[in-house]
Amino acid sequence: MIALWAANPLVPWIMGRDGTLSLPMQIVLLLTLLALLPAIVVSLTPFLRIVVVLHFLRQALGTQSTPSNQVLVGLSLFLTLLIMQPVAVEMYERGWAPLAKGQMTAEQAFREGTQPLKNFLLRFAREKELRLALEIARAPAPRTPADVELRVLIPAYILSELRVAFQIGAVLFLPFLVIDLVVASVTLSIGMIQLPPVMISAPFKVLLFVLVDGWTLVVGSLMRSFY
After folding, report:
1. Is 168 helix (H, G, I), strand (E, B) or coil?
2. Rounded-to-integer distance, Cα 78 and Cα 58, Å
3. How far apart are the C-alpha atoms of 70 and 86, rounded to whole Å?
4. Ordered mean pLDDT values, 10 residues apiece, the chain (227 residues)
C-alpha cells in the first residue's frame, strides 16, 4: 500500500497513508451528496406523499395560501426526518462508516449503504409500477426483491407514492365538497347570487376542520401509513 501510495501521484489525493479515504476525497464525496440531497429528500422519502397530501388539504379547505408553502414544506420535512432517521442511521453505519475507515471499497460501501434505502422503498413500491419500470428499462425480472436495481426501484416508488397521495387527497376533498354543494344550493334557493358560495362555505369548512382536530387526524394518519 505504501509503495503504491508513493508511486502513483493520484493515490495520495484519494487514499491516505493508512488506507482510508483522504480528506480531499471525503470533501468531494460530501459535496456531491449535498448537491443531490434536495432531489433525494423530495423523491426518495415520505416527503413526497406528505407534501402532496398537505397541498390537497389546503386546496380543499379553500384557504388559498394559508398555511404558506414554507410552513407546509417545513412540516413535511420534519415529519420526514422522524420517519427516515432509523434508515439514515443504518445507511451510515453500513456504508459510510466502513468506507471512511478503509474497511470497504467504494463499490461495496455503496451496495451495503443503499440496502436499507432499498428495503424502505420496496415496502411502498407497488408491483404494477415495478413492472412498468422494468419494461421501460428493458431489464430482466429480478428473482428476489433484493435483486431489484435502484434505477428501477426509484421511479416505481415515486409513481406509487403519487398514486397514494392522490387517493388520500381525493378522500380529503369529499367532506369539504359536500359543504360547498350544500352552501351553493342554499344560496341559490334564496336568490343570493351576488355573493360567491365559496366565500360563505370557507368559514364553515375551517370550523369543521378545527372542531374535528383535523391537523392531528391528517398528520397522524399520514405517519401511521408508513409504519
Report:
1. helix
2. 19
3. 26
4. 43 50 70 77 86 89 82 90 88 78 75 84 87 82 77 88 90 84 78 70 82 87 86
